[in-house]
Amino acid sequence: MLTSQRKKAILDALERDGQVLAGALSVEFGVSEDTVRRDLRELAAEGRLQRVHGGALPASPAVAPLAQRQDMDVAAKQRVARKAAAMIEPGQVVIVDGGTTSALLVQCLAPDLQATVVTHSPSVAVALAAHPSIDVVLIGGKLYKHSLVAVGAAAVEAMSHIHADLYFMGVTGVHAKAGLSTGDFEEAYVKRALAQRAAETVVLACASKLNTASPYRIGELDLAQTLIVDAGADARLVKPIEKAGLTVVKA
Question: In the record, what terms sit under GO molecular function (predicted)?
Answer without folding.
Answer: DNA binding; DNA-binding transcription factor activity
